[in-house]
Amino acid sequence: MSEQSLVRRLLARVFGETTGGAFSETEDFAACPRGTSGHPDGLDGNSGYMASLRAWYENPLARRIVSLTTQYVVGRGVAFQVSDPETERFLRSFWNHPLNQLDRRVADWSDELARSGNLFLRLTTDAGGQTYIRAVPAAAIVRIDTLPNDAETAVAYEIRAGSGAFDGPVGYRTERVAAADRTLPTAADAIYHVAVNRPVGMVWGSSDLVPVIKWIRRYSGWLEDRARLNRYRNSFLFVVKSRLASEAQRTLRQKALNAQPPSPGSILVTTEQEDWSVLSPRLESHEAGEDGIALKKMIAVGAGVPLHFLAEPESENKASAEASGGSAYRGYEQRQQFFLDQLRELLAHVVSRAALANRRVDPDAEIRMIGADINASDNLRASQAGWNAVRTMQALRAETRVDEDEFRRIVYRFLGES
What we know:
A hairpin with a 2-residue loop joins strand 5 (about 140-145) and strand 6 (about 150-160). This protein is of the alpha+beta class. The protein contains eleven helices and eleven strands. Helix content is about 45%, strand content about 15%. The radius of gyration is 31 Å and the shape is elongated. It has helices at about 5-15, 50-60, 60-75, 85-95, 100-115, 215-235, 245-260, 290-305, 320-355, 375-400, 405-415; strands at about 35-40, 80, 120-125, 130-135, 140-145, 150-160, 175-180, 190-195, 235-240, 275-280, 365-370.
């Protein structure tokens, strides 16, 4: 047996996976060429995307990290307002169309964006100008073609067809779909791509789970070892020492005891010729709790959330929990703003495509997206500040030190409104 195989077996015993499996620690998840780009993870399943997907399927911590992002980014839902009434009526018909139902889909899109780092939306427009949207799995995107001098501007996507489309045991059929272009809208099918955690100059995004996958695996292995350790710690054997004349008598005595072993809590009386003792494993686990907390802290740092978000209150009280959540809330606010900006751009694409068949739709109408509040305590602080400002400004207005317009401006400012 080679030295490498021995090392791999040892690592598999310690960490629960071989280093060449889907959770390889040495794998370069972000490697992809500039410009014309194939999938950075390949299509062999041994990739960062597939590892993230597998972790989301199997591990509760990974699924919790993804669901937390959606709970804060989407929350109770997303709304929009349009400056042109006719365009707003069209967008609402598009949003609530039975084949779209975007109130339900936006949460799935947020999950996919956090889980894979990429969201590919296929736009299909009928003769009447209505657009229908379907998300395409990131694993189905074989290639992204970009401008030769601009790696951030995609021009087309090569999509692997679904099941039943394979030409042979190793080949597969693909189709080329153009990138959505609002400046030159057409009614042909197009792909709108959203990516997060994308390094400068790269085409593909990266999953939120990539930095924490190996630590999630280590934590799962540690937890499994703890459960196995506790199980074996309660195992024991009776050792009976007796003066027997022959091996046949010893075998007969052992069969008798195995047939009727002592039940827990029973009283056993023996003669001086027989001595009973218990043999149990002495499995020590010093500072095991600290080891688990250290692993979970690494996961929390990689996910950008405080430890109590992952069901680990540790020694935090309410004040420290609120303070530690500040950075996480800002991260969720940034993701929410990015997500809303992409939804606004998507609606602009839909409007530009509809304007080809419906002249009443204004492609230049202003669209404003409205998201849920990230932190409810901000509303409480704003209301308290607004109430204090109202009382102060009322006194100044009574003394004619400020006019009505200045009064409204300052009160709105303290209420967090522009």
